[in-house]
Amino acid sequence: MINNIIYSLVIALFYSVMACQDDLPSPQDAKATVAYIDEFQNKETIRFSVNDNGGSTSLTPRISQLSKGEAYIIIEASQKVLDDYNAKNNANYKMLPEHVYNLVNTKTGEKGKSLKVNLENNDFGANIRVEVGDMLDKEGNKLPVADSYAVPVALSSASADRYIKTSDSRTGILILDREFTTGVLRLKGRLGAYMIDEANDIKFSDFTAQISFKIDDNGNGRIRENTGLLYPNSRTSNGSFYQTLYGNGLTLFTTAGGKVGLNQPEFEEFKFEPNKWYHLSISFKVENEIPYFRLYLNGKLAYSGPWTGKIEDWGYVYMGNSSFSGYIRELRLWNKALTESEINSTLYFANPDDENLVLYMPLNDVTRFENVATKTKGLYTYKLGSGANSGNTDFNSIETFP
User: Fold this and answer.
1) What is the DSSP letter of 309?
2) Is 50 within 8 Å of 86 (Cβ atoms)?
3) 270 neighbors 262 (Cβ within 8 angstroms)
4) What tens digit of pLDDT does each residue of 318-361 get?
5) What are the two backbone dihedrals, phi and then psi, of residue 273, each rounded to the nearest 5 degrees?
6) Which pLDDT tens digit goes with each residue over 144-184?
7) Helix/strand/coil for 207
8) pLDDT by residue (tens digit) across 37-64?
9) Which pTM does this prediction carry?
10) What kind and span of H or E run contains 63?
11) What is the per-residue pLDDT for 51?
């Protein structure tokens, strides 16, 4: 009987509390209205292209139901959003200087770093254009091309019928892909980089190796068979890892002698194309005593999974083989496994002073084969070879990115 009395009191208390909250909509309530930025529903970042004269992209802040009266949305640029993102992802994006850009309400023409968008009856949102002007500082000097700039945005406030504040999809980072022109290495054969002094040879337990490359057309609209990509190669062996392009597909040779291809859904049908630039990053890290290997193409995860054994001998970096014919830009080696955000923030440039950057060859007509990584500057050298046409190597080609 006592248990029945307690049970009855609990039920009565539950319904009493619920009765007091009947007027508050839940996120699942069809009558509730939530505010968000449409483009950031499923992603934290968006990239857009700019050149020295700027560029633009658009956002759609909105409410989930048509306005039935007075409603507004406030969207603004936010340094805090960028600081939080950089801290969480160990990224290094810089806030684009305020004088270079504006948020523009395309309906009213109002512009600024913070916009209050008033919604009329039966309206649901607005189109906000992010306009970037000349990439110059206040003194008129060109902003450093190597700096990774971003415009972080936040839907900081909103009001509407039965509006309920939500944190989902309310912030995001607009990353500028800055157009630039540079010399690149024309390579037929193989390029290697290694320590000048054999006594300093290092094998890293965790690492990331990166390369930007473009491969020639073999004459049939495809890439030449058995074209080697980025791999280690010690002074005494070919190492324990190799990857190559067979035609237009990538094959990874595992430490146990097996072969695997790209395994992420977005890359199920992926094929490399000749005469097109790619940024390749491979990382290795032991996680909970399990070796883990990841491969990224143009900043997107293309392969991820446990590896069959330790990948040794990194400290020597090789690109290409006797079949390679194409172009290379920015050969790098890090003594840590970079995160996806770190890889994306270094797609085109890295900071030579980074303490984890072991090797950095920009491979342009100015620095040529010089290692500019501050930590190991002067300690690495290079080697060309492997291939009948390996002598046809120069820095005479000029390319524009991205």
Assistant:
1) S
2) no
3) yes
4) 999 888 999 999 999 999 999 999 999 999 999 999 999 999 99
5) -115, 140
6) 988 999 999 999 988 876 666 555 679 999 999 999 999 99
7) strand
8) 999 998 999 999 999 999 999 999 988 8
9) 0.83
10) strand 61-63
11) 95
- Separation in Å, CA 237 to CA 232, 241, 312: 9, 11, 11
- Render 247-295 in DSSP notation, one character per residue: TTEEEEE-TTS-EE---SGGGTT----TT--EEEEEEEEEETTEEEEEE
Phi, psi of 89 (to 5 degrees): -110, 5
DSSP secondary structure letters along 340-401: HHHHHTTSS---TT-TTEEEEE--STTTTT----GGGTTTEEEEEESSTTTT--EEEEEEEE
| Residue 232 confidence class, pLDDT cut points 50, 70, 90 | confident
Cα dist from 60 to 64, 68, 150, 161, 256, whole Å: 12, 19, 18, 19, 50
Amino acid identity of residue 209, one-letter, is: A
- Higher-confidence position of 69 and 216: 216
SS (H, E, C) 98-162: HHHEEEEECCCCCEECEEEEEECCCCCECCEEEEECCCECCCCCECCCCCCEEEEEEEEEEECCC
C-alpha dist (Å) from residue 395 to 102, 230, 369? 39, 20, 10
Residue 216 and residue 269 in contact, taking contact as beta carbons nearer than 8 Å: no
Ramachandran sector of residue 218 (left: φ over 0; alpha: ψ -120 to 50; beta: rest):
alpha
The pLDDT, as a whole number, for residue 169 is: 73
Over residues 283-307, mean pLDDT: 94
What backbone phi and psi angles, to 5 degrees, belong to 265? -50, -40
Check if the beta carbon of residue 333 is closer than 8 Å to that of residue 208: yes
Q: Which pair of tokens denotes residue 78?
A: 């936010």
Edge-to-edge strand ranges of the sheet holding 111-112: 55-59, 128-132, 101-105, 111-112
Residue 55 and residue 48: Cα distance in Å, rounded?
A: 8
State how beta strands 149-159 and 94-95 pair. Answer: parallel
Element (H, E) at 122: none
Say how many residues make up the chain: 402
Query: In whole numbers, what is the pLDDT of the chain averaged over residues?
Result: 86
- In whole angstroms, give the CA distance from residue 126 to residue 119: 8
The arithmetic mean of pLDDT across residues 368-378, rounded, is: 94
